[in-house]
Design a protein that fits this description.
By secondary structure, the chain is of the alpha+beta class. It folds into 3 domains: 3-235 and 399-450, Bira Bifunctional Protein, Domain 2 (BirA Bifunctional Protein, domain 2, 2-Layer Sandwich), CATH 3.30.930.10; 252-379, Alpha-Beta Complex (YbaK protein); 468-566, Rossmann fold (3-Layer(aba) Sandwich). Helices cover 27% and strands 28% of the residues. It is built from 16 helices and 31 strands. Strands 3, 7, 8, 9, 10, 11, 12, 21 and 24 form a 9-stranded mixed sheet that branches. It has a 5-stranded mixed sheet with strand order 16-14-15-17-20. It is globular and about 100 Å long. The model has no long low-confidence stretch (mean pLDDT 93). The structure holds one RNA strand of 77 nucleotides.
RNA sequence: CGGGUAGUGGCGCAGGUUGGUAGCGCGCCUCGUUCGGGACGAGGAGGUCGUGGGUUCAAAUCCCGCCUACCCGACCA
């Protein structure tokens, strides 16, 4: 490819509203342009990177027995209604009507559709099956942001496994896990596999592949000592045991005029760790109390997971007043029996605690949790705080921002049951198939690579995904000899199968060097009069910026060798 | 969805309070001089000032509505 025929409009300044590095650099480098919020045009350079990423994913999927298919993007409401996700997907789903008034949706994910086809599997002899597609997904995100990192239309590799039983699923899951590790390695992304919440996907287990980046939106808890890692929506930490006084025989009401916060109550002599924080939620229409220790934070995803909630929100102040008879700041669960009460495990065995009395300006002291509160269920609701100790090795935990680059789920039989995916086993018995689903966002991976591979001058692509492997810069485009040598090396490299871009523009060297560094091609060959006088060209890896001199005649073979050995 | 900011040529911005010829840098085109780290000179092209309405002799500027985008939060597979 010659730069003079490449459309790559580079910019000196990033758009004023871009924040994320990948967003700035991809726009500046002429890789992407925004059409509207959450929808991006991929220009030729980005399209080449996207194809490289897809090729890597396809190879690794095929290696573990994946069969590529293609599902429709426009899907009937009926399939989503059957699984209940027509409702639970909420506003994330783009919905429309066809000319007959039939409701359809743009594909958000495809468990339902794959399960529908999966129902044609009839015998255990056909199992296991692993199917995948690389296709466009549509999600009406509340807030698209950060360039390609969070968009409303993107390419996803989604794979689905079908197995006879849990053991089979474990194997499929492990194969995918290993394939993901290889995929991210090949893209030079340090993806940490962590325990994750399954959200509304359902199923037993899920693992997210997280890449550390400042622009990451997910908080991941990691232990640098023992390697523990979990999404904060799932993470656990060690909790120092507490020895409480036995306290009073029954809760004692006392006046706390004007005191509405944990902190205020703590000032008046009741440490936050001896308080019970009562939070009121409306979960699928049901008022529910969630209790955590006063100095702990509740994680809403944990609450959602514990309750299987589809719609979860904090109760409005008037709902709380109506139901408990007091306003936030004076709430408690003592004596409450007409709603579910979920209690964080950290409150187990605690006594002599303080909590709201459901009467404005009054609290109870001497509360023994198990005696005085009708605990519906003990669950983990507490959010890990920075500095908490690892429950495995007791070393301090870190909480780091990460980008979710992949997510794999053990779905179990949730979709298989609904859609009747079952086979006859060797005894002629009907068995529901066990499914898994596995996703990677392609453009997010692209942006994530940029987030982790850049310097002050621009992008530094890993060789495996770079739009071109080599860039030849002709320093003096008006010098015949300079052009001739550049062209010769270009032609030879093409012959050797190297992906090479020839900067044949009639521009000053400074401009060409700056653009070369901005777009981030891994290797540059600088062909200019200085070197030619000595019979050499300069070979410059983008990552180090350090030039080595290579005799002109040996250049193509030299480069081809470096690229071959770098693979 | 709540809070905030902003829409002026391809990109970055000024102008707006005090209404009166729409400006600057970069980029783009032509010519010349340059040519190993974003050159210089001369001459050019390119703008319904997001949009609809209102006030006014006159609106980029003042008033009202709407749209769009971004940032923070909520939310999110």
């Amino acid at each position: 490819m010659r730069w003079t025929s490449l459309f790559s409009p580079t910019l000196r300044d990033a758009p004023g509203d871009a924040e994320a590095e990948s967003h700035k650099l991809l726009v500046r480098g002429g890789y992407i342009r925004q059409l509207h919020s959450g929808h991006y045009i991929l220009l030729p350079l980005a399209h080449r990177v996207r194809k490289k990423i897809i090729a890597i994913i396809e190879e690794e999927m095929n290696n573990i027995g994946g069969q590529q298919v293609q599902m429709p993007t426009l899907q009937p409401a009926s399939s989503w209604q059957k699984s209940g996700r027509w409702e639970s997907m909420g506003e994330i789903m783009f919905r429309l009507e066809d000319r007959h008034g039939a409701e359809v949706a743009l594909g958000v994910t495809a468990e339902e559709i794959f399960a529908i086809v999966g129902s044609e599997i009839t015998s255990y002899k056909q199992l296991p099956q692993m199917w995948y597609q690389i296709h466009t997904k549509y999600r009406d995100e509340a807030r698209p942001k950060s360039g390609l990192l969070r968009v409303r239309e993107f390419t996803m590799k989604d794979a689905y496994s079908f197995d006879l039983d849990e053991e089979g699923l474990d194997i499929s899951f492990k194969l995918q896990h290993e394939a993901y590790t290889r995929i991210f390695n090949r893209m030079d992304l340090e993806a940490i596999p962590v325990e994750a919440s399954s959200g509304n996907m359902g199923g037993s287990d899920s693992v997210e592949f997280m890449v550390r980046a400042d622009s990451g939106e997910d908080e991941t808890v990691i232990c640098t000592s023992c390697g523990y890692g979990a999404n904060i929506e799932k993470a656990l930490s060690y909790l120092e045991p507490v020895n409480d006084e036995k306290g009073a025989d029954k809760p004692e009401k006392f006046a706390t005029p004007g005191i509405r916060t944990i902190a205020d109550l703590a000032e008046s002599g009741h440490p936050a760790s001896n308080q019970i924080k009562t939070m009121v939620y409306v979960i699928d229409g049901q008022i529910t109390l969630a209790l955590v220790r006063g100095d702990h934070q509740l994680n809403e995803q944990k609450l959602a997971d514990a309750t299987g909630a589809v719609l979860l929100r904090q109760a409005r102040s008037e709902e709380t007043l109506d139901f408990l008879g007091a306003e936030p700041g004076s709430l408690g669960a003592v004596g409450v029996s007409d709603c579910p009460i979920l209690v964080d495990s950290a409150l187990k065995g605690r006594s002599d605690m303080v909590t709201g009395a459901n009467e404005n300006d009054y609290h109870f002291s001497g509360v023994t949790v198990e005696r005085d509160i009708e605990v519906g269920e003990w669950v983990d609701l507490r959010e890990v705080q920075s500095g908490d100790l690892c429950s495995t090795c007791k070393e301090p935990l870190d909480i780091v921002p990460t980008i979710e680059s992949g997510h794999i789920f053990k779905l179990g039989t949730k979709y298989a049951e609904t859609f009747g995916v079952s086979v006859l086993d060797e005894n002629g018995k009907n068995r529901t198939v066990v499914m898994g689903s596995y996703g990677i966002g392609v453009e997010r991976a692209l942006a994530t690579i940029v987030e982790t591979h850049f310097d002050g001058k621009g992008i530094i692509w890993p060789l495996a995904v770079a739009p071109f492997q080599v860039l030849i810069t002709i320093v003096q485009p008006k010098n015949e000899e300079n052009v001739r040598i550049g062209e010769e090396i270009y032609a030879s490299l093409l012959n050797l199968g190297v992906e090479v871009l020839l900067d044949d523009r009639d521009a000053r060297p400074g401009v060409k060097f700056a653009d070369a560094e901005l777009i981030g091609i891994p290797y540059r060959v600088t062909v200019g009069p200085k070197g030619i006088a000595d019979g050499v060209v300069e070979f410059v890896p983008r990552s180090s910026g350090e030039a080595t001199l290579v005799p002109i005649g040996e250049t193509p073979a030299h480069i081809a060798e470096i690229i071959k050995s770098a693979k």
